[in-house]
Amino acid sequence: MNLTILSAQLSAAALYSGVLILMGIVLQARVIMQRRTKLVGIGDGQDKELARAIRVHGNFSENAPVAIGALILLALVAAPAALMHLLGIMIVVGRAAHAFGLSRTAGSSPGRVAGMVLTLTALGIAALTLLARALW
Cβ of 84: how many Cβ atoms within 10 Å? Predict the structure, then answer.
């Protein structure tokens, strides 16, 4: 295996992983600021705005680690760098759209729907690529 190619894949994985980690920090900081403002140490204190911020961060935290793991594994099996960039962009845009949509409303919204479609599509493609690399 050409190490230069693998380096391109690892760089792609690092790029999108770094962006996702920074997004997670921003979402966590929003929860911390709301907790301090509303004087709520644990839980949501029956505050709908805080509850929503917690859920936005929670949903991100449920999906981002899986995406980061998938990107790293794709790099390690030398998936095409172009595919990794496509999936990385889909995941980052999907997570941002979902966080924005859920931050605005607890109900259905274009951001939430687009975010989940992008994220799940990217994760599905990543999973199928990993299975194909492992089996063939």
Answer: 24
pLDDT digits (tens, 9 = 90+) for 38-66: 999 999 999 999 999 999 999 999 999 99
DSSP structure class, residue 54? H
Predicted TM-score (pTM) above 0.70: yes
Domain range 3-135, CATH architecture? Up-down Bundle (1.20)
Give the number of other Cβ atoms within 10 Å of residue 7's Cβ: 12
| 30 contacts 53 by C-beta, under 8 angstroms | yes
Written as six digits, the tokens of 109 are 């919204």
What mean pLDDT value characterizes the chain?
Answer: 95
Instruction: Parse the chain into domains and list their residue ranges.
Output: 3-135
Tens-place pLDDT, residues 77-91: 999 999 999 999 999
